């Protein structure tokens, strides 16, 4: 038996609309999840702009998911009613990497691109992706677990406790980096480059010195630079901002070639670290949100109904301003 | 007559104030006009740090100095109170004699009415016009009155007085009549529509401005408010206020909040964005509502009881207008974006069901 549910549909022509889609039958080891909140990630906007990574059209994006199990396919699946967040990653399960460490799967795909995601009232997911969350945790806070896991993973790569940090870009990931740095290291000095007014306002509210453009930051002054912006020259800017011995952490997905002088990295002993998604940090992220949700909730600047999503997404594509945008399907 | 009879008779005309109902979860409580974002990390740390001084009586001098700098007035023009409601009690104690004529709007802020009745004042209620103060009618009613209570933005309609109209109103009110401009919701008002209180007070010594840390500064639970007025008026209020009426945790929180302007502005911006989003939805759906300049919106929905039930089903609680003298309406406090999205969904389904 198939079920039709309201869902965001992205056509091959990149037209966005709300329609209905058929859900597959819930198989063994799978769960039907009633989605209560889904977060809009920068990569969702990238797919809406380019159509990249989609395996089946029309696509229903959305890989940051909080909901409740509505139906369980067999044993080992959380019982109906259980509040859960979803792991977004779908390793292929067939390659050598998957046999040893699925997080390094070269064919790693994501919910919403490889299979219908959370911008729908319901989705069917492998139970192996689901993590139970405490009933006391607000769903609209719990849904931040996936991007927070990305940030927890990235900050796990730090070589040292930073004293002075520059964050390029204060969208959802840059802002989560900001909050996590404050939580971990206390009164660390943080400067932010962010042109969008609301995102800049949040960075100031969190205590940062905030400028619109990375070129206005202090060259050679920071022992940690986080690139969460990914604009064409952001890596080059990041290197310029580094003090000797500093680390650059790259989180943004940028395809632009960047001229970097290797001698500069060598002579100034700089480390450039790329960090992609997460490995096993989702439970830690859930625990952080359950313990200290108030730290992260100010990032949710916008929440909308499913019907409001196409128009809102188009506005965000033209002129990003929201920090974290949530959808209530 | 027994003391029981005296006590009962003394408050016979008083309508007891009750706060907004609680929701299943705190975030769903849209019934008390609280700040959805809460206090900043720095303010939370300051409040926690005050525990070390809990065994000492509170010294309010530093906060008064900081407020004086922030408001551009001398400390002799400031009185600190335990929430701005305490200022209502102090003002009524000084200015409302038994039988004194007191002007309020209809509906009015319930505490203004309560303290008027406790003091035996004669309440003269002037009906709102389209949800806004009828300033010419209030000025006319102020002849031979002791006090005019003037909340702006008004609670529960959210309407703010026009600064020019306020100036004309003050010119029309006799100088023997105290005007209390309650600006609890000032920070949510469009910047060009906020009265220049300092200039008005310089011209009208019968004006007292009432402010609070409960709304934009997110300290409702700590109870800190203040009044700004002529030094002689403030001295009278200061003379009768309870000693140490603002506690050490509240003072520490207020000092830190006053220094944390970026957090306050961000919190206000989120509320104003959500208020506009709600008003757009209400207009599109065909609801009757008062355009608001505060952190709430008053709406007159069809089938009010059914709406309360539908909201409760989603964990949301709003204030029924009957509690606030505005029968047939509900007052919706602006919550965090997720709760407001859920609210819009309920309002949409409620209207679609006709």
Describe the overall structure.
The complex is a heterodimer of chains A (329) and B (354). The two termini of chain A are 22 Å apart. Chain A has ten helices and 17 strands. In chain A, strand 14, helix 8 and strand 15 form a beta-alpha-beta unit. The model of chain A has no long low-confidence stretch (mean pLDDT 95). In chain A, strands 3, 4, 5, 8, 9, 16 and 17 form a seven-stranded mixed β-sheet that branches. In chain A, strands 12-11-10-13-14-15 form a six-stranded parallel β-sheet, with helices on both faces. Chain A has helices at 42-50, 96-100, 139-142, 145-155, 172-185, 197-205, 234-241, 262-267, 282-296, 309-318, and strands spanning 3-10, 16-23, 30-40, 64-72, 83-86, 89-90, 109-110, 122-126, 130-132, 164-168, 189-193, 209-211, 222-227, 242-250, 271-274, 300-305, 324-328. Chain A has 329 residues and is α/β, with parallel strands linked by helices. In chain A, helix 4 packs across helix 5 (172-185). The mean pLDDT of chain B is 96. Chain B is globular, with a radius of gyration of 20 Å. Chain B is α/β, with parallel strands linked by helices. In chain B, helix 3 (61-71) packs parallel to helix 10 (248-259), helix 4 (83-95) packs parallel to helix 5 (110-118) and helix 11 (261-285) runs parallel beside helix 13 (337-352). Chain B has a seven-stranded mixed β-sheet, with helices on both faces. A five-stranded mixed β-sheet of chain B has the order 1-11-12-10-9, with helices on one face. Chain B is built from 13 helices and twelve strands. Chain B has helices spanning 3-10, 41-49, 61-71, 83-95, 110-118, 135-141, 163-172, 197-203, 231-240, 248-259, 261-285, 304-313, 337-352, and strands at 29-30, 78-81, 101-106, 122-127, 147-151, 178-182, 207-212, 225-228, 288-289, 296-300, 317-320, 330-333. The longest helix of chain B is centred in the last third of the chain and has 25 residues, at 261-285. Chain B has two domains: 3-38 and 262-352, Aspartate Aminotransferase, domain 1 (Alpha-Beta Complex), CATH 3.90.1150; 41-259, Type I PLP-dependent aspartate aminotransferase-like (Major domain) (Aspartate Aminotransferase, domain 2, 3-Layer(aba) Sandwich), CATH 3.40.640. At the A-B interface, helix 6 and strand 16 of A face helix 11 and helix 13 of B.
